[in-house]
Amino acid sequence: MGKKCGLMVGVDLGGTSMTAVALDARGRVLASRKRSTRPELGPEGVTLRIAATVRKLLKDLGKKSKRVQGIGIGAPGTVDPEKGVVLYAPNLGWQDHPLAEMLSRLLRLPVTLDNDVNGGAVGEHVLGSGQGAANLVAIFVGTGIGGGVILDNRLYHGSCGGAGEVGHIKILAGGPLCGCGRKGCAEGMASRTAMERDMRQAVDSGRPSLVPDIMARMGRERMTSRVIQEALREGDPLMREILERAQNCLGLLVASLVNLLDPDCVVIGGGIADRLKDEFLEPIRAKAVRHILRAPQLKPVRIVPSRLGDHAGSIGAAVIAWNRLAGINPVDS
Amino acid sequence: MGKKCGLMVGVDLGGTSMTAVALDARGRVLASRKRSTRPELGPEGVTLRIAATVRKLLKDLGKKSKRVQGIGIGAPGTVDPEKGVVLYAPNLGWQDHPLAEMLSRLLRLPVTLDNDVNGGAVGEHVLGSGQGAANLVAIFVGTGIGGGVILDNRLYHGSCGGAGEVGHIKILAGGPLCGCGRKGCAEGMASRTAMERDMRQAVDSGRPSLVPDIMARMGRERMTSRVIQEALREGDPLMREILERAQNCLGLLVASLVNLLDPDCVVIGGGIADRLKDEFLEPIRAKAVRHILRAPQLKPVRIVPSRLGDHAGSIGAAVIAWNRLAGINPVDS
To answer: Does residue B120 register a pLDDT over 70?
Structure first.
């Protein structure tokens, strides 16, 4: 009984959707919920929505809901983990929102707050493919590129909580415009959004591609990971070319991170990685290895796919809650 | 008496020259020596040369030489600080050289070993312009670009001792060849060597510049920092253009580092920075600030010039010896 029988809820709050899981002390997910975020409701509205989602999750848990000891939230943007305040979340349009306090009042449970991709990094480190790595960098490729840095087995926040913005490491001086409004960022070259922009531009300029048809057939307005996968399956040369360009950039990003931080392990996750698996990872790894500076007698860095997939962020948020509220790390059994 | 009256010797071992200082517990330099390295003598020969340089320094110290408690060495390349072994130093052509043990036997004093630019970062952190910064990145621009990372007030080594290779962070995918044999590294675009290459190519292709004349007049075979300074003073447009290109790259490098690590402070040092001072730093800072992602209400990162100049590495090596052998940090008085 006691700690070992407790549960923590983890919530990964994204710009589009939120995912909540209940995690036991062995690192097992007992229940999960997914729901749209609807950022247009504003910080208070979205906070109520998180509370409602957690209440549903508690209901799913039935009697076990009594064992929930706390909630960990991962929010997109810069947070103050000590104060539980979302300082700046451009995707949500939030500034200085006291999310942890408000949610704690609504749910009468202690709440910890961190950045969403920091959560993903912690999840992969404690329960995913980064287990055993004292120093780890996680990169999540989706509409943007986010990441988290674990140093000496601890999440590294930096001086103002802003560390881990791997998507805004520069890869190509003067390169394409990034969503952040600046040029040359990895995110502006290798995110799904960047690939979609490159695809649209190429198609608009008259290059043939199956992608528009596939999107129409699938009823998608965006070039989702499933669309990318289908285009590759059908042998679309333009899709392959655009993907390879992104993979080259990600390989350089991985090399830069390894040359700077000399981690044991780099975990690559996010929607495309989860869907394409080795087809996505292998060229990134090959490119990275060629650009990593390393004394020849040292063991090579592990470059591995995320294992927790879509749940990395919510599981990680729950792990952070386990760490901070109960002082333990859930252990994969 | 005791610790407070002790001295540590610090040696910065470079590919061309070595610098040795004697540092007291207040962080004051009591004596210094500089001498060519002559890497062609091989690892044993160079080690004997270091020992001879330290003996001269001890002689300079006179009676005070009895107070020397140990020696810190900063070596160029990957080192194992625990074992005191230089694992891989391509500039010197060394692999697996047990430098600390050999030197300790020759001089009958305890010897600590670290990377040379790690030493520079520690020097600037403890006694230079990075004082008070819990998280700091130091960048030294010279024939190459090296750096060191201080996190949570401690030197960060990474998993295999290879951390801090800021010069091999990629800035321009597919860009010019770097000394490491790969393309697109910061070092291949913004080191003094890269600027000299760009200058030679431009002059060879017929662009006018005062630099060849200045080099001839000064009797220099290389485009040294003094040559660069003189060319700028005489208003050479090509020199300014090449310098600006390097500064833009360094600005992007600083931004990448800040976006990833969110440090309190970035210190920029090395020969050109020491010589050109604000003329070198200001454009780098301006470029970096435009590319740093940061919540608007947070305090900006400090981007400052090195204060210890040419002695950063040797002072830092001595500080590391103070840390490891005496368990204290010398304090600037």
So the answer is: yes
ipTM above 0.90, yes or no: yes
- This prediction has a pTM of 0.95
Q: At what angle do helices B237-261 and B278-291 cross, to 10 degrees?
A: 50
Confidence at residue B295, expressed as pLDDT on a 0 to 100 scale: 80
pLDDT at B1: 44
Residues 6+ apart with CB under 8 A from B313: B10, B12, B14, B19, B74, B116, B117, B119, B120, B123
Does residue B78 sit at the A interface (CB-CB below 8 Å)?
yes
Section A106-118 average pLDDT: 97
Domain annotation for chain B: domains and CATH numbers: 2-123+311-326 (3.30.420.40), 132-306 (3.30.420.40)
Q: Count Cβ atoms below 10 Å from residue B226 Cβ, excluding itself.
A: 15
Q: CB A160 to CB B96 under 8 A?
A: no
CA closest to B252 among chain A residues: A170
d(CA A162, CA A150): 14
Residue B73 tokens read as 């060495």
Residue of A77, A135, A252 with shortest CB distance to B159: A135
Q: Is B171 on the interface with A (CB under 8 A)?
A: yes
Chain B hits for A248, Cβ within 8 Å: 173
Sign of CA dihedral A98, A102, A105, A109: negative
Between A237-261 and B237-261, two packed helices, what is the crossing angle to 10 degrees?
80
Chain B positions in Cβ-Cβ contact with residue A88 (cut-off 8 Å): 295-297
Query: What integer pLDDT is reported at residue B4 of this predicted model?
Result: 56
What is the average pLDDT score of chain B?
A: 95
